[in-house]
Amino acid sequence: MATLGNPTNTIAILQKYNFNFQKKYGQNFLIDSNILEKIIDAAEVNQNDCVLEIGPGIGTMTQYLCENAREVVAVEIDKKLIPILGQDTLSSYDNITLINEDILKVDINAIVQEKNNGNPIKVVANLPYYITTPIIMGLFESRVPLDSITIMVQKEVAERMQVGPGTKDYGALSLAVQYYAKPEVMMTVPAGCFMPRPNVDSAVIKLTRHDKPPVTVSDEKRMFDIIRASFNQRRKTLVNGLGNATELNVKKEQVLSALEKMGLPPAIRGEALTLVEFAALTELLSGN
To answer: What distance in Å separates the CA atoms of residue 167 and residue 69, rounded to the nearest whole number?
Structure first.
C-alpha cells in the first residue's frame, strides 16, 4: 500500500485505476505531506477520537487520520473512488468505515451514536467550494455532537467565516459560523499543493464548537431568516431589506421601531450589526 500525499504515488494510483477527475464533485487531491501533517495537528486528532471525513478522494488524508485516530468514518459520493479506497489505499487499516453516499443525505447522528456512543466527534475534510456552506450548516443545524470541524476551503470562504461587522466579506455565513463555533484560520495552502491545481488558494480553518451559543434567542430559525434577509440585498437599508422580505412578515414601521429601541440609526444596513444586535432585533420583531 503506497503512502499518498506526494505527486508520484498519487499519479501512480490514478493511472492504475484509470481515474478521471469529476468536475461536478470539485475533486482536488492534496499532494503535500507537510500540509497533511499540519492539518492533523490543527484538528488535534488523537487515539481517543472518532473522526468523520467528508470526501476522502483517493484516501490521502484518510491514511493520516487512520494512523492518528481511534475510528474514522469516511463518506465519499463518487462511487468510482470506492474500489481505490476499499481495495487499495485504505486496505491495511481496520479502523475505517467507508460510506458511498452524499454527505447531505447521511444520518450523521446515527453514525455518531453507533461509532462513538453519541459523544462528540471531530470532522476533518477538504471540501469542494460549491458545497462548503450547505455541509457546514447541515452539521451545525442537525445538532450533530461535534467537538470541532477542521476543513480546507477556498481561502476567501475561510476569511468570510471569521470576519466581523463592517467588512465586505461579512455576511450570513460569518454570523452563522460564529453563532455555533469559534473560527480560526490555521494556514493558507497554495494552489500548487493540489492535483489538479485549482484556480485559487485554499485555507484550513478550524471551527471549535461553542458549549453554548454566545447569544440567547427564543427562535434561532427566525434569527437566521432575519440575518439572511438582511444580507440578501446588501446595498439596501435594514428597514427595506426586512420590510421587503415577504417570508418574514414584518412591516417597515416595526423594523424602524425596533431599531429606535436599540438606539440604532434608521438608515443602518445589515452588515453593520453584530450577532448580539441581530439577536436583540429578533426578539423585538418577535414581540418579546
So the answer is: 38
CA–CA distance, 111 with 2 (Å, rounded to integer): 29
Identify the CATH number of the domain in which residue 159 sits.
3.40.50.150
Q: Is the pTM of this model over 0.70?
A: yes
State pLDDT tens for residues 57-89: 999 999 999 999 999 999 999 999 999 999 999
Q: Which domain holds residue 251?
A: 220-285
Residue 173 lies in a domain: yes
Q: Are 65 and 5 in contact (CB under 8 A)?
A: no
Q: Can you tell me the distance from the alpha carbon of 282 to that of 114, in angstroms, rounded to the nearest whole number?
A: 37
Q: How far apart are CA 257 and CA 246, in angstroms?
A: 19
The domain tally of the chain equals 2
How far CA 3 is from CA of 32, 88, 159, 194, 286, in Å, comes to: 12, 11, 32, 16, 56
User: What grid cell was written down for 51?
Assistant: 473522526
